[in-house]
Amino acid sequence: LDFFRSYNSSWYDQSKYFSGITSVNTSLLKPCTETRSMIHEVMQVYAEVTGDYDGVEIVDGKVQGKCWDRYFWFPPSCRHDRSKCILFATGGAG
Known about the structure:
This protein is of the alpha+beta class. It contains two helices and two strands. It has helices at residues 40-50, 76-79, and strands spanning 56-59, 62-65. A two-stranded antiparallel ribbon has the order 1-2. A hairpin with a 2-residue loop joins strand 1 (56-59) and strand 2 (62-65). The longest helix has 11 residues, at 40-50.
């Protein structure tokens, strides 16, 4: 993991060295609905700064992160083929 800066999926397929997200026991994770990705102000700024409106959704008039499979948020580079994504887990409120 020392050379994380070279994990650009358009250059190399690093996923072959990692287990896929299907190997994760999701009972040990918080669902997305309990993480910071549900905070309207945070996700509104994220969408405006990055232009990634496909990574958010509007629910009851508020912007929140778009969750896949209840537990995962995927960056634009992973959305076309989630099997190639490398899981990055955070602690606390996500």
